[in-house]
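> example.struct
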């Protein structure tokens, strides 16, 4: 484990990908779908500070 830590200090993490690339059409569609999915939920905070997620419109079953 110590050797791995030393290698990471020199070479960085093993999995490194570029964030500067063009989005493909498939990625754009997936992003739009994920954004639509997140819009149907609402985060509720309890008085003790914990949170939970509830549907904004319980009657809407389009994405579930």
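> example.seq
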């Amino acid at each position: 484990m110590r050797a791995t830590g030393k290698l990471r200090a020199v070479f960085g993490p093993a999995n490194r990908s570029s964030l500067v690339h063009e989005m493909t059409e498939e990625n754009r569609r997936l992003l739009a779908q994920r954004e639509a999915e997140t819009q149907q939920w609402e985060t509720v905070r309890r008085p003790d500070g914990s949170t939970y997620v509830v549907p904004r419109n319980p009657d809407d079953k389009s994405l579930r």
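> remarks
The first strand starts at residue 41 and ends at 45.
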